[in-house]
Specification:
The strands form two sheets. A three-stranded parallel sheet has the order 1-4-3, covered by helices on one side. It has a single domain, classed as Nitrile Hydratase, Chain A, CATH 3.90.330. α3 crosses α10, α4 crosses α5 and α8 crosses α9. It starts with 8 loop residues before the first strand and ends in a 49-residue tail after the last helix. It is an alpha/beta fold. The chain has eleven helices and five strands, in the order βαααααββααααββαα. It is globular, with a radius of gyration of 18 Å.
Length: 254
């Protein structure tokens, strides 16, 4: 970290060989080849496929994680188990499996904001968040959120006070991180299912806060690459940090 007392951003990760995208399975390879053939023949509209993928990225997939968050908000005992052993606590709700065997949940507080990235590939907790969005996999996000997280979050619409410490968590093949967002004020009377409906994918990655009510979604700028209702991707910037970093996998203090 910087010696500047105002620099309260921290990056915690372990590059000990944990970043390696899984090779495509034979089924995935056949599915990709079939999609290309059907698209080339004009049988399948690429926009239809994009729409299905977008639904799984933003709505269907993240519903599992939203249920985990909502349960933690209403059940202090479950919240404690979630922060102690996330993999086991998430499995209590029936979620788990490949890409989610070793989960760690990091909690946002009024003084600490967490954001998740995978600097060398696109490791992502599929069982609770579904498909990773395009911007999460982009080199720009993966590089810049480590070096200048406040700037990247601000570009995505999340402006944090200077007094808030920002912690960047680097997912790997061994550990996948999930952010437990702060419960928004004014939701004390909402049922667990209603709370889950407020939780967004981006809030569980750490690029947004949870709002008490959903507001209108602004369209992305022309030429942007994330899903239609996703945040604007950060512009290209510096290259990712060197793979020889030896920072500990978990950080307890700034």
């Amino acid at each position: 970290m910087s010696d500047d007392p105002h620099d309260r951003d921290a990056h915690t990760h372990d590059h000990g060989g944990g970043h390696h995208p899984a090779p495509l399975s034979p089924v995935e390879m056949r599915a990709r080849a079939l999609e290309e053939l059907l698209t080339a023949a004009g049988i399948v509209d690429p926009t239809f496929i994009d729409g299905v993928v977008n639904a799984y990225e933003r709505d269907i997939g993240p519903m599992n994680g939203a249920r985990v968050v909502a349960r933690a908000w209403v059940d202090p005992a479950y919240r404690g188990r979630l922060l102690t052993d996330a993999t086991k606590a998430i499995a209590e709700l029936g979620f788990g499996g490949p890409e989610g065997e070793h989960m760690v949940v990091v909690e946002n507080t009024p003084d600490v904001h967490n954001v998740v990235v995978c600097t060398l590939c696109s490791c992502y907790p599929w069982p609770v968040l579904g498909l990773p969005p395009n911007w999460y996999k982009s080199p720009a996000y993966r590089a810049r959120v480590v070096r200048e997280p406040r700037a990247v979050l601000a570009e995505m619409g999340l402006v944090l006070a200077e007094s808030v410490e920002v912690r960047v968590w680097d997912s790997s093949a061994e550990i996948r991180y999930l952010v437990l967002p702060e419960r928004p004020p004014g939701t004390e009377t909402l049922a667990e299912e209603e709370l889950a409906a407020l939780v967004t994918r981006d809030a569980m990655i750490g690029t947004a806060h949870v709002a008490a009510r959903h507001g209108p979604i602004s369209p992305p700028p022309s030429g942007s690459t994330p899903p239609p209702s996703g945040p604007t991707p950060p512009p290209s910037g510096p290259t990712p940090p060197p793979s020889g970093s030896t920072s500990p996998p978990r950080q307890q203090t700034p």
